[in-house]
Design a protein that fits this description.
Number of helices: 15
Number of strands: 20
Strand content: 25-35%
Helix content: 25-40%
RNA sequence: GAAUGCGUAGCUCAGCUGGUUAGAGCAUCUGCCUUUUAAGCAGAGGGUCGCAGGUUCGAAUCCUGCCGCAUUCACCA
């Protein structure tokens, strides 16, 4: 590094600004290669980071990497002049340069740019961990790639420079988000923004991060969900609203959980959860095809098809199928015994809904590899969902499970303010008994419902997990640019 | 929060039944080379072996504690 500082000074002393203001770029690597014509050389100006240099005395080859790929540059001392060639000798891998020249094909067949002049655009002071590549029987083999997980996450900028597949994953993430956004927008639904700092947190069962507002001298929470605010907007008269939301949950970290994560929540008036299932099928299939060109994906070693329709199974049927146990019409005591027979050790404080959830989570969910809608959950687990139209004790709710993990959650939203108040008060008493994830009564939300919310279908999609599913990445840290790590 | 594994040069790794001055490839530096592509050839520099203690004549190597990362489990999407 000291040497590079010296070079920086050396360049400055010889009148070269190592950090100029701009450079006129006329072409990018992939586009130049695609448009290349054998007998018509094209004038181009390209810019990028030097990734490899092969100097051969009075001529050199090097590769620059720009936003969409790599381009080889050929530089001859005769043509650029002695001074420029001397400057070139001071350049390092990692420096950013602009090159003016014309396209040609080398003796070995690589489409390249024959430089007529070049300009240093940024001196790099730290060596980048370059990996070398070689083609072996048509396959690219990478040698000594920058692979240390901790370094890759802490210095994602380096990871992105050096590992093209990482860059690709994030390009796909962006494509997934923009596809969902345009799908929703094209239905006429409104993209909105709601508070991240909330005086009362709600909409999910989770522990929040707390913070403090100095001027108001009050405690505030980072949202765990935005559900209750989006419903207020449906009360306000919008037919469809959605928000790509960063939510925050003060829970453990593992390869499926980051303390801040992204959900898109959607609420559509006059619809129910049945309609929402059809929407999710169509959305997921289209998104996968838009991003990967196919509805097939590989996740955790499984081939998964996102082709609609997805299997539908009530939670009771799913437990019957995977354990042989019957949960319908059972009392809490019977359910507890049943769980014990299956080998589950349960906290004696939990109620029947939670027991069913435990059985499901232990014996069913990990086995649901192909996308499956699990429907008709016990009321106790779902205080914001509408009672089922024909099955007492259940609500109109579904979760989409794929790859053994929950990807979506959806209900026909509860819009009866009287029942909603009862449910929230039940939550509050659970809270008093020590369940610190139970919900809090939000009087303003209840007031909104009392003005009247039309029948509404709601949906939340875990974007990080959907991106994992579609890209095949096996850790949430590989689909979040800057995953949470302890400080260095 | 618990268990297991890992931490050696800028990067990828070897060395770890304790024993001269800790190695290799790439990267870096010097010299040669005007169509190379893991360019090549000749030479050189580069390390508080994660941190702190301990055992020992002697520790990268054995022991203890701490820090960080990964995986699994628990909580959760």
């Amino acid at each position: 590094m000291q040497r590079r500082f010296d070079e920086r000074r050396h360049l400055q002393e010889s009148g070269i600004n190592p950090y100029p203001c701009s450079f006129e770029v006329t072409g990018h690597s992939r586009q130049i290669i695609e448009h290349f014509k054998e007998d018509a050389e094209e004038k181009v100006s390209v810019a990028g980071r030097i990734m490899a240099i092969r100097r051969m005395g009075k001529a050199s080859f090097f590769h620059i990497q720009d936003s969409d790929g790599r381009m080889q540059i050929y530089l001859k001392k005769d043509e650029v002049g002695d001074d420029a060639y001397a400057t070139f000798k001071l350049l390092d891998i990692g420096d950013i340069v602009g090159v003016n020249g014309y396209t040609f094909r080398t003796r070995t067949g690589e489409i390249s740019v024959h430089a007529e002049s070049f300009e240093l655009l940024c001196k790099s002071l730290r060596p980048i961990p370059v990996a070398k590549e070689k083609e072996v029987e048509g396959e690219k083999v990478v040698f000594d790639a920058f692979a240390d997980r901790e370094l890759r996450y802490r210095q994602r900028y380096v990871d992105l420079i050096v590992n093209p597949e990482v860059r690709n994953t994030f390009i796909k993430r962006s494509a997934i988000v923009s596809h969902i956004r345009s799908f929703f927008t094209s239905q006429g639904w409104l993209e909105v923004e709601t508070p991240i700092l909330q005086p009362i947190y709600g909409g999910a069962a989770a522990r929040p991060f707390t913070t403090h507002h100095n001027a108001l001298d009050m405690q505030l929470y980072l949202r765990i969900a935005n559900e209750l605010y989006l419903k207020r907007l449906i009360v306000g008269g919008f037919d469809g609203v959605f928000e790509f939301a960063k939510d925050f949950r003060n829970e453990g970290i593992d390869r499926f959980h980051n303390p801040e994560f992204t959900q898109v929540e959607l609420y559509v008036a006059y619809k129910d959860y049945d309609w929402m299932m059809r929407l999710v099928e169509e959305l997921f299939q289209q998104t996968a095809i838009a991003v990967n060109g196919t509805a097939m994906t590989t996740f955790l070693g499984h081939e998964i098809s996102l082709e609609a329709p997805f299997r539908r199974l009530t939670i009771a049927d799913s437990i019957r199928e995977y354990t042989g146990a019957e949960i319908e019409g059972k009392t809490e005591t019977e359910l507890r015994n049943l769980a014990k027979d299956l080998g589950l050790e349960l906290d004696p404080k939990i109620g029947s809904g939670k027991i069913i959830d435990e059985i499901f989570g232990e014996f069913v969910e990990p086995k649901l590899i192909q996308p499956t809608f699990i429907t008709d959950y016990p009321t106790e687990m779902s205080p914001l969902a509408k009672p089922h139209r024909s099955k007492p004790g259940l609500v109109e709710r579904f979760e989409l499970i794929a790859g053994g993990k929950e990807i979506c959650n959806s209900f026909s939203e509860l819009n009866d303010p009287v029942i909603q108040r009862q449910r929230l008060e039940e939550q509050a008493s659970l809270r008093q008994r020590g369940d610190d994830e139970a919900m809090v009564v939000d009087e303003d939300f209840l007031r909104a419902l009392e003005y009247g919310m039309p029948p509404t279908a709601g949906l939340g999609i875990g974007i990080d997990r959907l991106v994992m599913l579609i890209t095949g990445e096996e850790s949430i840290r590989d689909v979040i640019f800057f995953p949470h790590l302890k400080p260095e």
